[in-house]
Amino acid sequence: MQPQDLNMTTTVTGHQLFLFVTLGDGESDGKLAEAIDLLGQNMENVHDVDGPPSDEAFARGRFQLLRAESALTSEQQIIHPAVSESHGLIRLECATFEPIGEYESELRKLIEPFGSSVETLAGVMRPRSYTSHAMTQFAYAHAMPPGPGDKFPLAAVTPMNKTEAWWQMDFLHRESFFLPRYDENENMVVKGHALASAAGVPGINRRLVHAPEGYGLEGSYDFVGYFEFAEADAPVFREVMAGLRDTQQNPEWKYVLEGPEWWGRRVRTAKEFLTRG
Question: What is the CATH number of the domain that holds 19?
């Protein structure tokens, strides 16, 4: 289904690619690391940036290398070994698709001779569709801005689909799941998405991308969530995800099918990226 058919925004403000790399048995020597570093020479390395990107950097393209934290990764309803068993992730973002699409193509040429492979999840960035001014003040005005990898070394990726029943709902019905619900005596009986995830607002930087070609399509995820946080906030992230998955308090999740919850550690260089744990 297309955004305009769902009363959701159709505006695209940027593009992201999640390149999950599985390393083969071939030698990943220093020359390969150097070549991967050169791929990003005209792009901004997000690892060293404190705060949101400048317009100039976003136009050129940006990248972040992440080494898999396999012990923290978990399968969910949609089994996707090319994601869950990958050794690392390169996250790319840009105002236009071409620079990051070229990066992906060149990366494949570099690593496939070593028996390695790339699984790509693509997404477009859009303005928020379910957010009033009041919700913006609650959930985003005080949200943690992005920070450098040394400060926020952990990241998690959460690809997911919404069920057909979700997309068949009237848009006001869908929107209602993000808010608390009350009984006839005005007692809160359900937290809803906003309150179930509220603990993560101060210490977890959240980004979300949408499927480029529309929702409910075979072979792609409707959404890919990306989160960065400090070591000390890892339990908070787990708490937030547990709260979202509690369908008694967040009935929205009855309509969610998750891919793997992938965890990684942000690194600065390709040499670190290619080092297996």
Answer: 3.30.70.3420
What is d(CA 41, CA 119) in angstroms, rounded to the nearest whole number? 23
Q: How many Å separate Cα 141 from the centre of its chain?
A: 20
Q: Which parts of the chain sit beneath pLDDT 70?
A: 26-28, 129-142, 277
Residue with token string 């496939």: 112
Q: What is the pLDDT of residues 164-219, one digit of tens each?
A: 999 999 989 998 998 899 999 999 999 988 888 887 778 999 999 999 999 999 99
The phi and psi torsions of 166 (rounded to 5 degrees) equal -65, -50
What span, in angstroms and rounded, lies between the C-alpha atoms of 244 and 261? 13
Report residue 270: phi and psi, to 5°: -65, -30
Q: How many domains does the chain have?
A: 1
Range of the domain at 231: 3-274
